[in-house]
Design brief:
This protein has four helices and 27 strands. The protein is of the alpha+beta class. 22% of the residues are buried. The chain folds into four domains: 34 residues; 102 residues, Immunoglobulin-like, CATH 2.60.40.10; 108 residues, Immunoglobulin-like (Sandwich), CATH 2.60.40; 126 residues, Immunoglobulin-like (Sandwich), CATH 2.60.40. It is rod-shaped, with a radius of gyration of 56 Å. A hairpin with a 2-residue loop joins strand 26 and strand 27. Strands 2, 4, 5, 8, 9, 10, 12, 14 and 16 form a nine-stranded mixed β-sheet that branches. Strands 11, 13, 15, 17, 18 and 19 form a six-stranded mixed β-sheet that branches. Strands 1-3-7-6 form a four-stranded antiparallel β-sheet, with no helix packed on it.
């Protein structure tokens, strides 16, 4: 009995212990489940999937933008600029520049500067870039054009083209050079001195620039009437890089009208092109028509016969009186001709004249004084005489008039009585 009880109690304790153990395990399991972190692998997969979807959508949209909606009607595309460079041109002829621009351009501009070739006549000035719009050759066309006017094509041209689209993006060509075939003109730098009986000449040279090989004609400007300038030859056809030469000869048109003086003239070399032309000029060439002039004073003189002396039959006893007129002679433009002095209108008898260089000095330029001495002998005829004083030289003839009056000797009747 006691053994049964003991066994029964033991079984009860085991049973109770077993039940307590199960409840404790259950509680511990619950606590472990509550504290254990949730698995993260599934969330990462979701985020990656969303990013990939976004990338695909962006790629599709970008492709549609690039390729354009509805089969090519693009409202935006990368801008493209194409241009066929021009390397050579002729002076005085227009130049047309073209470009092809695609990709919604807002404007296309041409920028250029001109480097003058003919520095002998063009004053130095800083090089300046010009900028202007190129124009579309037609509505909806991708071709643009600009023509540099013929009158601006006076030297080598440097240029570049810039295209700007509606978003402010730009494309530009590199700077290009157009070598303009041109020429310049030069002279020997000497003055031409022309008389009625003497011509003068100088050499004119035309030089090719950048393979200029066209015909050039020569003319002269600002030449006064009465002077003639001739070129031999008057037209020159240059070879590429070569030089042409002409002789300029100046002469008087006639001996009747002689335009004495100093004249600054310009020699012009003209090229007439298909769409224009150009004129190149020399520095001023001086053409001198040497001239002279003179003035005489006093304009009138009087003398009494008593101042000369009484008339006598014996030549050795005759007296003389000299009446002097001052000639102020002015030579212009390096006058170098011979001068001939003369006077007419003196009494036919007992009077003669001579020209005397004052102080024995004759100036090649400026003013020289020459004395006209009228020598009167006793017994010279009374009266008023108009003297014509003439100087000739270099094809010119100048004259002046003066008056010489010879009076009787007041109070001396024998003067008249012995007059011969």
């Amino acid at each position: 009995m006691s053994a049964f009880i003991i066994n029964h109690l033991a079984e009860s304790e085991v049973s109770m212990t077993s039940e307590s153990t199960d409840e404790t395990a259950i509680e511990e399991f619950k606590e472990e489940k509550e504290t254990e972190p949730a698995p993260r692998g599934k969330g990462i997969y979701i985020v990656v999937a969303l990013v990939m979807v976004a990338i695909v959508v962006f790629g599709i949209v970008f492709t549609l933008i690039i390729s354009g909606w509805a089969g090519g009607m693009s409202w935006w595309a990368p801008m493209q600029l194409g241009h066929e460079p021009i390397a050579e041109a002729f002076v005085g002829e227009k130049i047309e520049l073209k470009a092809i621009v695609s990709g919604n351009p807002r404007n296309v501009t041409i920028n250029y500067l001109i480097d003058e070739n003919n520095v002998t006549v063009t004053p130095y000035s800083p090089l300046t870039w010009f900028s202007t719009f190129m124009l579309s050759v037609g509505e909806g066309s991708d071709q643009y054009s600009y023509t540099i006017p013929a009158n601006e094509v006076t030297g080598d041209i440097y240029y570049y083209i810039v295209a700007t689209d509606t978003y402010g993006n730009t494309k530009a060509t590199q700077i290009r050079k157009i070598a303009v075939a041109d020429f310049y003109i030069e002279d020997e730098g000497k003055d031409l001195v022309v008389y009625t009986d003497k011509t003068d000449s100088t050499k004119i040279r035309i030089v090719s620039i950048n393979h200029f090989n066209r015909e050039v004609s020569l003319t002269i400007s600002d030449l006064p009437g009465g002077l003639i300038a001739e070129f031999n030859p008057s037209k020159i056809t240059l070879s590429e890089g070569g030089t042409g030469e002409s002789t300029l000869t100046a002469r008087m048109a006639s001996a009747e009208y002689i335009p004495g003086g100093r004249y600054d003239v310009i020699v012009e070399a003209k090229y007439s092109g298909a769409s224009g032309g150009v004129v190149r000029e020399t520095d001023e060439i001086t053409v001198k028509a040497p001239d002279f002039d003179f003035a005489i004073s006093p304009r009138s003189q009087e003398i009494r016969r008593s101042e000369i002396g009484s008339e006598t039959y014996y030549t050795e006893y005759r007296r003389e009186k000299i009446v002097t007129f001052d000639i102020e002679l002015t030579l212009r433009n390096e006058f170098q001709g011979d001068l001939i002095f003369n006077v007419e209108g003196l009494p036919s008898e007992r009077a003669y004249h001579r020209f005397v260089l004052r102080d024995d000095k004759f100036l090649a330029a400026g003013t020289t004084h020459v004395d006209l001495e009228v020598v009167l002998e006793s017994g010279v005829e009374r009266g008023t005489y108009t003297l014509v004083v003439t100087i000739e030289g270099g094809g010119f003839e100048r004259d002046e008039l003066v008056t010489l009056t010879i009076l009787s000797s007041t109070g001396y009747l024998y003067d008249d009585y012995y007059r011969r």
